[in-house]
Design goal:
single chain, alpha+beta, two-stranded antiparallel ribbon
Length: 153
């Protein structure tokens, strides 16, 4: 989603920021929307697409190429180290659920981020807060600050 090397912000990133503001704050504060997501990476967040390559004009064409790699990554890295995963879209979860061990911490947002294209706002179902709660209760880590805000005081 990070798009610092292009001139405009990707629409998915813009909707992500809007959804985080709705889930956590709803205070109508000015959310600082940056094209670079290093502030999240520096907190230990990794955004990983289920398909790491694309072919111009053929969305999803390379998806099957990445299923085994992503499954291997989930099973041998994330599960072994108990790193939680948040699946953004039930379709993504359905694709990788066979790699996730039953006791492994994962969260599923049923609606994909691209749902905004159909005219609805992305409903995160409180899953980012659940992830924060999980991290606090198990690792005693600080909450992830999902957005930067310009606070008026």
């Amino acid at each position: 989603m990070s798009c610092e090397y292009v001139d405009k912000m990707h629409s998915h990133l813009n909707e992500f920021y809007d959804a985080m503001e709705r889930e956590f704050y709803e205070l109508n504060l000015l959310v600082i929307k940056e094209k670079n997501l290093d502030f999240l990476t520096n907190q230990g967040v990794l955004f990983l697409s289920s398909s790491l390559t694309v072919e111009l004009g053929s969305p999803g064409k390379h998806k099957d190429l990445w299923v085994q790699f992503m499954g291997h990554l989930i099973k041998t890295v994330f599960c072994k180290r108990n790193i939680p995963i948040l699946f953004c879209g039930n379709n993504v979860y359905e694709q990788y659920k066979f790699y996730v061990e039953p006791i492994y911490p994962y969260f599923v947002i049923k609606q994909p981020l691209s749902a905004w294209r159909l005219g609805s706002k992305w409903n995160t179902e409180g899953k980012f807060q659940q992830l924060n709660d999980y991290l606090w209760n198990t690792a005693k880590t600080e909450d992830i600050m999902w957005v930067k805000q310009d606070v008026p005081y």
